[in-house]
Amino acid sequence: MTDNTRDDREQDAAEQDQDTQSTENENNDAPPRQRPGKKPFIILAIIAIIILCVAVVFWLMNRGIESTDDAFTDGNAATIAPKISGYVVNLNVKDNQFVHQGDLLVVIDPRDATAQREQAQAQLGSAQAQLQQAQAQYQLAKVQYPAQLHQALADQAKAKANLANAQSVYQRQHGVDPRATTQSNIDSATSQYRAAQADYQQAQAQVEIASQVPLQLHQQETAITARQQQVAQAEAQLATAKLNFSYTEVRAPYDGYVTKRNVQVGSLVQAGTALFSLVSPQIWVTANFKESQLEHMHPGNKVTVSVDAWPDLKLEGHVDSIQMGSGSHFSAFPAENATGNFVKIVQRVPVKIIIDKGLDPRHPLPLGLSVEPEVHVDE
Predict the structure, then answer these.
(1) CA distance 232 to 222
(2) What would be the CATH architecture of the domain defined by 66-109+257-376?
């Protein structure tokens, strides 16, 4: 039994030696492991050089250019509103229609304004007639008042003569012997003398009144001035009535496009009610640049503008002006940096850019279109 066990162990050892030799033979048949070469590093270096060249070319191409995507088209847009109230009887425009300066756009019922104009015309005619009457009275007064003075002086002289005669009779009747006259003659002489005194005093009063010729003529001149003022007032009322009548026709203040029309024939409009807007064809660009982009920017810099709506449309212009204040400063509620915690925020400043060329009549630029200007600050 011991011999069998020894034989088994020898057989197992022989099998293990055989397996080990087979494994070594397999390892000897496999290819040897190689170390990585320099080729990947060369590829990475080439890629890095290409990226660096592209970056340099991009920097050279964009050197001296400031751009922003916070920009839009801008222009004049006036709100058209009537100055009087009334019904719209004629509407001569459509939505987005182009009109010229002075074109008739809207007509408001003119009957009330016509009646006011005719009433003012009648008041002016009445005031002019009263003025002519006052002028005629003044011309008459220049002749009448001196004549009245001469008549008053004549009456005074006559009264004075009658007074002297009556006084003589009175003295004669009272100076003679009572037996040479009668009491009736004495009484008659006395009454005539007193009457002559009264007539003379009355004549003196008339002379004093009639002698105020300059004052009386000045009174007539004042009446003429008052009538002239009434005529001027009537003329002003007529001018106002004519002006109100002209307000019944709403005309275009300049060339432009009718936009946001909200009126129809028969609509009752009030004074100041917005009928529509009129957009001028003169368009510019308002670009909000960061404050850090304004160092070399000044009026006159050339600008190229691309429009998002028409990518093929390239516009050229120049910087017209830079707003004297950031956009946030002119907002409804500007930031108050003097209180609380302060956080610095890069501000944006509006820059007005005038378009010099490149506009296409077939592609008008509505207000508010997004654009991207590039300002050449090195020129």
Answers:
(1) 15
(2) Beta Barrel (2.40)
